[in-house]
Amino acid sequence: TVFDCSILPLAKVHNRAGNITVVTGNETLPFPIRRIYYLYDVPGGEERGGHAHRGLHQLIVAVSGSFEVMLDDGKNKKIVRLNRPDYGLLVTPGIWRELFEFSSGSVCLVLASEVYSESDYIRDYDEFKLIKS
Ligand code: TYD
Question: Which InterPro entries does the record cross-reference, listed alphabetically (predicted)?
């Protein structure tokens, strides 16, 4: 459910020359990292996402700038604003998500538990609702 999609504070190594945040699959995260991708150059007003995954676990991080994530488990919805590189949003399987309100220059980093597979996507909201009912 959306209540399992929690904000995960990430370790920050800080000194006067700046910060480093390290994420390790299976150690920091409850899943192995099999893929990394990032969204950037999202034009103002555009939305991303608009789908659910059948089996994929993800950690979503605003490594630069900010954006909002709407999560929907078919019953409950919540909106989370991400705007810090040392916090991630865990998204469990079976959650419809929409990303919007990208600030200019923002970068959305995604750490994912599986390699890309189109068959893992549910891109039709009616189908999603049917599966969830
Ligand atoms: P999609 O996941 O729908 O984007 P978003 O959720 O950010 O709106 O992916 C957009 C396109 O990129 C789609 O045609 C599939 C392709 N894609 C890959 O080829 N590999 C990947 O790992 C990802 C995430 C997307």
Answer: QdtA_cupin_dom, RmlC-like_jellyroll, RmlC_Cupin_sf
Residue 16 CA, ligand 1 centroid: distance in Å? 37
What is the C-alpha to C-alpha distance for residues 74 and 77, in angstroms, rounded to an integer? 8
User: pLDDT by residue (tens digit) across 60-98?
Assistant: 999 999 999 999 999 999 999 999 999 999 999 999 999
Q: For ligand 1, what atom is nearest to the CA of residue 48?
A: 8
Q: Is the interface score ipTM higher than 0.95?
A: yes
DSSP class of residue 108 equals: E
Question: pLDDT tens digits, residue range 9-26?
Answer: 999 999 999 999 999 998
Among 116, 117, 118, 123, name the best residue to mutate to test ligand 1's pocket (greatest count of ligand atoms within 8 A of Cβ). Answer: 116
Gyration radius (Cα) of the chain, Å: 15
